[in-house]
Fold this sequence. Notes:
The chain is α/β, with parallel strands linked by helices and about 260 residues long. The chain has helices at about 20-30, 40-50, 70-85, 105-135, 155-175, 195-205, 210-220, 230-240, and strands at about 10-15, 35-40, 60-65, 90, 135-140, 180-185, 250-255.
Amino acid sequence: MNLNLKGKTALVCGSTQGIGKASAIELALLGANVILLARNENALKESLNDLDTTNGQHHNFIVADFENQADLKSKVEAFVETKGAIHILVNNTGGPASGLIQNAKVEEFLKAFNNHLICNHILVQALMEGMKKEKYGRIVNIISTSVKMPLKNLGVSNTIRAAVANWSKTLATEVAPFGITVNNVLPGATLTGRLQTIITNNSKSKNKSIDTIQEEMMEEIPMGRFAEASEVANAVAFLASPAAAYITGINVPVDGGRTGCL
């Protein structure tokens, strides 16, 4: 099975922590040149040190904030113009805050829509021509198992993740003739800062201890534990590889069996 990414370049969003950083590390281990993208320059510089370079990879970073779409677009386009094509795009950003959908403000939906779907679209358009010319493209979107079954107390997230999933499926059909694949990785409860925030918020809203909330969440997972970020990254790396050339337009749950449907 060909998992070799030597000579390929990957742009990984939200790559200074959590699933984004774990994905960047795994792609570098497979030989890819990795471009980290996040808003904290110091954290980006520190994260570069964790990327493998034993295959002669040349890693880099872009400082950009998804709150400023015009700046994101100009910086990525400028990078491609000076550095060349990017073959792999990992769309990943922090999810919306937890809460009941009936209490969500309109501004919360708009912010999440911009940070997730609109920024994903901007990045795809900036990289698409390079992928077509190189005859190699892998677009992997980190979203959520909520696209299969909405999750309790994540109203805004459930809504926006579904929009991204349908955008992804539509895009996959359009770009398949060019050898470009588009897939979604659906993390379940994963040991990241976001999970800790969700647990803390649930603890406060339900007036239960953090340990109790964690135990209740793990009882819903057949494997009986939370995922490591690296386990989600393994799915990302496979879908980015040559071995996944005929897999496109799908959702891949990495959830320890929690989602109660196929």
